[in-house]
Amino acid sequence: MNKFLVFLEQREGVVKKNSISTWNRVQELAALRGNSVVSGILVGPAEIRQLDGAMAGNGMIYHAKEERLRLYSQEYYAGVVADTFKREDCTDLFFADTVMSRDLAPRLSVRLQASLLNGCITSDAEVDGVSRPVYSGSFLASFIPKRYQRIFILSSDAQLSSCSAGGNIDFIDVEPRSFSIKDIVPVVRQIVMREGMPDVSEARIIVAGGRGMGGAEGFTLLEQLALLLGGAVGASRTAVDEGWRPHAEQIGQTGKTVAPALYFACGISGAVQHLAGIGSAGIVVAINCDRHAPIFDVADYGLTGDVHIVLPKLLDSLKEFLKTQ
Ligand SMILES: Cc1cc2nc3c(=O)[nH]c(=O)nc-3n(C[C@H](O)[C@H](O)[C@H](O)COP(=O)(O)OP(=O)(O)OC[C@H]3O[C@@H](n4cnc5c(N)ncnc54)[C@H](O)[C@@H]3O)c2cc1C
User: Fold this and answer.
1) Is 200 within 8 Å of 256 (Cβ atoms)?
2) Gap between the Cα atoms of 176 and 178, Å rounded
3) With a 6 A CB cut-off, is 271 part of the ligand 1 pocket?
4) 218 lines ligand 1 (CB under 6 A)
5) Burial track 165-203 (b if 16+ CB lie within 10 A, e otherwise)
6) Annotated domain spans of the chain
7) CA distance 27 to 183
């Protein structure tokens, strides 16, 4: 029997959307495989939001309640997840692809002596393996982990679950034992980069810019558009390397893999390394002054023009439109 454990990441008491999608995806996998159970592990404050009705299937969530763990602490989180994994005799541990999971999963792989595979897009119900895009998404490679216990970080591509939400979930309090609270590395300060904007890895709408934005100030237009649409600002590596945007916003092979419903690529050429991060985007809108730019090959809608002329017009039209709604 497969016993799947899903790490449910919370920030400030709110469970991340991509953790919920991972849970739903794992429920789907359990249904495909049969003879499998799904449970979740949640570390953080007693008050947790964004779970009601969002999660599919049946299962249990082990909740290690600790007010001081509202913020991430590597050692403590790893201890709690490892304890739960061992106590419940789990076979597989799943993470959404987030900054926290990229830090936590390797620690757990060592602690649990488990195989670790990141960037997975699917688990094959027949052969017990996973697929992962390689060479900037040009090929899909299949991997079969050697060890009995396995850890998977599912990329955003795998987050699209067809499971319907509204499952029967039970919560069980767990008493973390492995570490005392004095072992926690204290978080001195948390900096919120952009208030009111979702993270690119979770956003349904992303307004991304590249070198064509001309500088950090060019991104003001993209911020305005993102705020109007309730989306996030993303960036190409060039924009990040130039210091115009933080690395947290970089999309692509060495940045984040995203799966928004709507993706704006403004002044982005569409290099293969950038496209590797947007393979699961829904509708792609490209604005570029070079009509031969490769981004137009993958765009659903393309606009040939200067971003500094097109974007202000788009913003004005959108504001007018929103007034009528
Ligand atoms: C190992 C490796 C990993 C990499 N990882 C990543 C990654 O994760 N993410 C990533 O993005 N890149 C990555 N890259 C870099 C990638 O190859 C490209 O260099 C980068 O994506 C180009 O960024 P860009 O599209 O912003 O810039 P450019 O390629 O310079 O394109 C700028 C575009 O803007 C257009 N433009 C210029 N002015 C205007 C204007 N006024 N109005 C409208 N359009 C305009 C131009 O026509 C052009 O198409 C990686 C490269 C390597 C080798």
Assistant:
1) yes
2) 6
3) yes
4) no
5) eebebeeeebebeebeeeebeeeeeeeeeeeebbbbbbb
6) 2-183, 205-323
7) 34
The atom number, within ligand 1, closest to the CA of 211 reads 26
Written as one string, the DSSP assignment of 78-140 is HHHHHHHHHHTT-SEEEEES-HHHHHHHHHHHHHHT-EEEEEE-EE-TTTS-EEEEETTTTEE
User: In this structure, are residues 121 and 159 in contact, taking their beta carbons and an 8 Å threshold?
Assistant: no
Structure token digits, residue 31:
């249904």
Q: Tell me: the pLDDT tens digits for 64-121? A: 987 777 778 888 889 889 999 999 999 999 999 888 999 999 999 999 999 998 888 7
- pLDDT for residue 309: 97
CA 229-235-239 angle, to 5 degrees, is 140
Q: What is the mean pLDDT of residues 221-240?
A: 96
Q: Which of 254, 263, 291 to mutate to test the pocket of ligand 1 (most atoms within 8 A of CB)?
A: 254
- For residue 267, give the amino acid letter: G
What are the pLDDT digits (tens) for 256-302?
Answer: 889 899 999 999 999 999 999 998 899 999 999 999 999 999 999 99
Which positions ≥6 away from 62 have C-beta within 8 Å?
Answer: 39, 40, 41, 42, 84, 88, 172, 173, 174
Q: Do 2-183 and 205-323 agree at the fold level?
A: yes
Span from the CA of 137 to the centroid of ligand 1 (angstroms): 17
Q: Using a 6 Å cutoff on CB, does residue 306 contact ligand 1?
A: yes
- Atom 26 of ligand 1: nearest residue by CA position: 210
pLDDT tens column, 31-78: 888 888 999 999 988 887 767 678 888 899 999 987 777 778 888 889
* Domain 205-323 CATH assignment equals 3.40.50.1220: yes
Q: Which residue, judged by its Cα, is nearest atom 39 of ligand 1?
A: 212
In which band, very low, low, confident or very high, does the pLDDT at 244 lie, cut at 50, 70 and 90? very high
To which CATH superfamily is domain 2-183 assigned? HUPs (3.40.50.620)
Q: Does ligand 1 lie within 6 Å of residue 234's CB atom?
A: no
